[in-house]
Amino acid sequence: SHHTTLLMTFSPKIGGKDRRSGLILTIPLCLEQTSMDELSVTLDYLLSIPSEKCKARGFTVIVDGRKSQWNVVKTVVLMLQNVVPAEVSLVCVVKPDEFWDKKVTHFCFWKEKDRLGFEVILVSANKLTRYIEPCQLTEDFGGTLTYDHMDWLNKRLVFEKFTKESTSLLDELALINNGSDKGNQQEKERSIDLNFLPSVDPETVLQTGHELLSELQQRRFNGSDGGVSWSPMDDELLAQPQVMKLLDSLREQYTRYQEVCRQRSKRTQLEEIQQKVMQVVNWLEGPGSEQLRTQWGIGDSIRASQALQQKHEEIESQHSEWFAVYVELNQQIAALLNAGDEEDLVELKALQQQLSDVCYRQASQLEFRQNLLQAALEFHSVAQDLSQQLDGLLGMLCVDVAPADGASIQQTLKLLEEKLKSVDSGLQGLREKGQSLLDQISNQASWAYGKDVTIENKENVDHIQGVMEDMQLRKQRCEDMVDVRRLKMLQMVQLFKCEEDAAQAVEWLSELLDALLKTHIRLGDDAQETKVLLEKHRKFVDVAQSTYDYGRQLLQATVVLCQSLRCTSRSSGDTLPRLNRVWKQFTITSDERVHRLETAVAFHSSAEKILQECPEQPEAFNEVEQFDEIEAVGKSLLDRLTVPVVYPDGSEQYFGSPSDMASAAEHIREKMKLVSLKKQQLRQPEATTPDS
């Protein structure tokens, strides 16, 4: 920036060539006091720009003193011998139109040529063309050389900035590239840490260089005005190969740098993946596995198993976050494997295998634990259902049986059998669930991480076996109670059957009594028929006797069953008196029927005997008494037909209807008439015999 200020202040330039191809140095001086030190510094910088080859051809110096004082011009001319690092063939001092005072210019430069080492001439601006070609002079000296000091200065600043930045960047890139090529891992790490990023953007520097080179080449071929042919400044011609060389070096180092960055990026990505893989592995094998180690119980009820399931879901939720990281890492590793170098394949595959092994093992353990808890929940669910069934069955067995009839007992017994069958099926299901759960528990040791799970497993196994044994004992007790209840209910069925049959026997006996009174009316037309009726009646009485005996046996059986059941019969106390009452009525009625039939047999037999005898028989007179007896029997029979059967309770019953009794009595009366007629016939001979 200091040089820039000086160049803008003094505006010296090196441009154009003299007739010996030496460079032309133009030093414009101004009215203001000029600092020789600053001018010396400015000239030193400016003269450092040309190449040694160009400087070896010497210089022609134009000191423009038209706007300065003589003493300043003289001081500058004298200073040139110390400033210009090469031979100065000629110094042209451009004098103003109004020449300096002769006293001032009394100092003769030509006399000092030997001491100075160069020739100094005073010349007007329009006379410079005598010494220098017009095409090598700018317009202010009457020449045609095109020159824009600010444009040159800006280009120079761009060139120097590019040179400085590119040189610094080349050093940085070389340090980075060489550091990455070293075999020592420690140096590589240190180099990466210290010089990972260059101080300037290589792309920007390259773009600046290309633009500068393009500008220099354009000025060379086209000129600054786009149409006027001109010879460029020597420094511009010199800058082009320098820029091209720097650009080539930059491109080479930048290409290497990009490869280094790619390798570093890949290594960094690989290290990040490795770090994340180890984070996943360390958590799964550390806290994740520890969570599973502490979860061994299966619970002793549905609620306890559900609580353990909820806890397991929380553990699974935490694992899911790490499994999501595993999926992402697996995708990244797969992408690197597809695009990776041979040297990274082994490491990547090892990482992928390690990650997959740990994740799949942990996932398998989580699934195993989940299945175990589900099996435990199903076991406890079946056990609870079975327990409720046993409670229901036990409650049913503990309630005393008070059925209304045998049908309800049969229904209750059927319900008991169904419940017992359901309990048996439930117990079988519990055994199956329990055995399946025991099999799963026995496999827990396969992923116990060296932990002794004998105690935990023994507690779980003891609990499962204890539940199954308890259910078996409860079921056995219920079966025993069902057997007792079944026997009792069968006895009650038998009791109801006996009571029902006994009541039926009473009904049958009542029907026999009713039939005896209503249909057993006829007394027979003769002795033979009456005997047949009497025989039929005896058989009828035998049937009634069997019915009565059957009823008595049934009632005796009910007494025994009631004693066995320790209950009082609800119907036998009523049935027995009914049975005895009906039987008593039947026997009274039967006895009356027998008496009437027997009387009728005696009546018919005696009547038929008399009616069949001949009157000539000598013993006829002796039968008079028999006639009286027959009449007495007949009258007695007729009297009995009009008398009802009187029972012990005072009630009365008649045989048949009054018309039936009248018909039977009429038949007896007719027969009595025949006997009476026979008696009269027998008496007539007795009356005629005394008269004779």
From TrEMBL:
Q: Print the keywords alphabetically.
A: Repeat
Gene3D superfamilies in UniProt: 1.20.58.60
Q: Name one Pfam family in it.
A: Spectrin_SESTD1
**What's the name of the protein?**
SESD1 protein
Cite a single GO MF annotation.
Answer: phosphatidylinositol-3-phosphate binding
PROSITE patterns in the cross-refs:
CRAL_TRIO
Q: Where is the CRAL-TRIO domain?
A: 38-149
Give the family per the record: Belongs to the SOLO family.
Going by the entry's taxonomy, the superkingdom of the source organism is recorded as Eukaryota
Q: Return the PANTHER family for the record.
A: SEC14 DOMAIN AND SPECTRIN REPEAT-CONTAINING PROTEIN 1
